[in-house]
Amino acid sequence: MTTSVSAVTRRELVAIVGDDHVLTDRDLTAGYEVDWTGRFRGSTPLVVRPGSTAEVAAVVQLCARRSVALVLQGGNTGLVGGSVPLAGEVVLSTRRLSGVVDVDADAGRLTAGSGTTIAAVQTAARDAGWAYGVDWAARGSATLGGSVATNAGGLRVVRYGSTRAQVLGVEAVLGSGAVLDDLGRLDKDATGFDLSGLLCGSEGTLGVITAARLRLVPHQPDRAVTVVGLRSLEAAVAAVGQLRRVLPGLEAAEAYRAAESELVARHLDVAPILRPAPPITLVVECAGSGGQADLLASAVDSLDDVIDAVIADDGPRRASLWRHREALTEAIATLGPHHKLDVSLPVGALGQFAEEVVMRVKVAAPQSATWIFGHLGDGNLHVNVTGVAPDDDAVDDAVLSLVLDHRGSISAEHGVGAAKRAWVARQRGPTAMGAMRAIKGALDPHGVLNPNVLL
Ligand SMILES: Cc1cc2nc3c(=O)[nH]c(=O)nc-3n(C[C@H](O)[C@H](O)[C@H](O)COP(=O)(O)OP(=O)(O)OC[C@H]3O[C@@H](n4cnc5c(N)ncnc54)[C@H](O)[C@@H]3O)c2cc1C
Q1: CA–CA–CA angle 123, 111, 202 (5° rounding)
Q2: Which ranges in 167-314 belong to alpha helices (H)?
Q3: Which of 106, 287, 377, 438 has CB atoms 3.0–4.6 Å from 158's, for a disulfide?
C-alpha cells in the first residue's frame, strides 16, 4: 500500500465524485487530519467525499487497483485515533451519504445513510412515534456509519444494548470493492453468517458502511432523573444492582467522582449538583408510560448509605442534572490532549480497579492527573489521563495491563483504533487473532481499508 497519490489517480477520483469533492487544499483538509481529542494528528494528500454507494465502490476499486490506502471518516468524533490519516492515507469521508431513507412506523424500523448524524436518526424516530435506543453526548456530529463501525454504546446500553443490538442489516462496500446489500435482513433470519453483525465493530477494516437498517424502541413519554451522592464506587455498584432489580424502566446509570464533579462545575461555571461534592455522584434515569418520579423516589429511598439525592421529572430540570455528566468529556478536553482509556470490568472488580488505577498512573507518570467516570450499569469506566505527552504510552500500558489483570476488556465501546492495537492480541489470544486476520484477508484482500486500525 502506498500513501502517495499520483496526478492520474487524483484525476480518476475527480472523475468519480466531481472536482468539488476531492479536497487537496490544506485549509480544507486540516480538519480531517486531527481527531477530537487532539492526541492523534496525521496528514493526508487528499480527502475524497463520495455521494453514493456506487461512488464509494468506484473509489474503493480504484484505490485497490492503484494500491492507495484509505482511512474512513464519519463525524470524526472517535476517541482512539481510528479515523485520522496517521500514516498519510487518503481520507474517505462518508458525510455526504446522509439522510433518512425510510421509516417503517408499523414495524419500528428506520433505514438511513451512513453519514446521517445520530441526532437526525433520533429525530426521525421520534417523528414516527418511536425512539432510537442509542444515545451519547456526541450525537450532533457522530454518524450512523461511525457508530456501527465502532459498535458505539453510550448512555442507554443498560436498557437497550449497544449499537449492534439495534442493527438489523447494513449495506457496505467491502475492501474488494463489491457491494454487500444486507439491508433486507429480517428479525428472524437464520440464513448463513450474520455479515451485518460482523461489520458492526469492525472499525472500517472490512468495508465502508454506506447505510444501515435499525430497530427502533418504544417512545417512553414519562421520565425521571435522580442524582445520588454515595460514599464509594462499591456502594454505587451495589446501588445500581438494587435499582436494576426494582426499576424495569431503568435507562441509564452513570457515575463520576468528586474530582470530576468539581472539574465539570468549574467548566460550566456553576456549583456541583450536590454540595459538598460526594465521593461518588450517581446519575440514574428511568422512563416509562407514567409514574416514573414516584417509582424512582421510592427506589432511591430503599438504597443504603445515600449521602444526598435530588430528583427531577420535568424536562429542563432533568437536562440540568444531565448537563454535568454530559459535559465531562468536554471539560477534560479543556485540559489539553489527553489519553482516553475506555475499559470494562466485571462489576465486582470496579471499585478496586478505580483505586488501583490512580496509583498505577501516578507511578507511570507522576506529573499526570487521572479523571474517571463511566457507564456504571455496563461495568464501563472511562479513565482519562491529562498532563502526559500524546505519544507517551507508559500510561496506557499501566492502565491496560491492570484491566487484563482484572479480566476486563481494553475497549468497552470506543474500539481499538490506532491507540490500542498493541493490546488486542493480549486480550483476544492467537486463535481469535488468526480468525480476525483471515476475515480481513477475505473481505479486504488488497488491504486498502484502515490498514493501521485494529489489526
Ligand atoms: C463528547 C464525546 C462523547 C462520546 N461519548 C461516547 C459514548 O458515550 N459512547 C461511545 O460509544 N462513544 C462515545 N464517543 C465516541 C464517538 O462518538 C463514537 O465512537 C462514534 O461512534 C464515532 O462516530 P463517528 O461518525 O464520529 O466516527 P469516526 O470518528 O469518523 O470514525 C470512528 C471509526 O469508525 C470508522 N468509520 C467511520 N465511518 C465509517 C463507515 N461509514 N464505514 C466503516 N467504518 C467507518 C473510522 O474509520 C474509525 O475507525 C464520544 C465522543 C465524544 C467526542
Answers
A1: 105
A2: 195-199, 233-246, 258-268, 292-301
A3: 377
What residues form DSSP beta bridges with 207? 174
Cα 115 from chain centroid? 15
Nearest C-alpha to atom 50 of ligand 1 is from which residue? 138
pLDDT attached to residue 5 = 87
pLDDT at 8: 87
Contact in structure between 414 and 381 (CB atoms under 8 Å): no
How many Å apart are CA 212 and CA 107, to the nearest integer? 16
Q: Is-contact 267 331, C-beta < 8 A?
A: yes
**Ligand 1 mutation pick, 37, 48, 77, max ligand atoms within 8 A of CB:** 77
For residue 72, the CA-to-ligand 1 centroid distance in Å is 11
Our mutation pick for probing the ligand 1 site, out of 37, 48, 56, 72, counting the most ligand atoms within 8 A of Cβ, is: 72
From the alpha carbon of 144, which atom of ligand 1 is closest? 25
Which of 36, 56, 59, 79 to probe ligand 1 with, by most ligand atoms within 8 A of CB? Answer: 79
What residues are in contact with ligand 1 under a 6 Å CB criterion?
A: 36, 71-79, 82-83, 94, 114, 136-138, 142-143, 145-147, 149-150, 152-154, 203-204, 208-209, 329-330, 413-414, 417, 450, 453
Centre of ligand 1 to C-alpha 213, Å, is: 18
Q: Which atom of ligand 1 is nearest to the CA of 209?
A: 42
CB 32 within 8 A of CB 93: yes
Look up the pTM and report it. Answer: 0.95
Any residues with CB less than 8 A from the CB of 66 and at least 6 apart, and which? Answer: 2, 6, 9, 12
Q: What is the mean pLDDT of each run of 10 residues along the chain (455 residues)?
A: 81 98 97 93 97 98 97 97 97 98 97 98 98 96 98 96 97 98 92 96 98 97 97 96 96 97 97 96 97 97 95 96 96 93 96 96 96 95 95 94 97 96 96 98 98 97
Confidence at residue 96, expressed as pLDDT on a 0 to 100 scale: 98
Residue pair 320/285 in contact by the 8 Å Cβ criterion: no
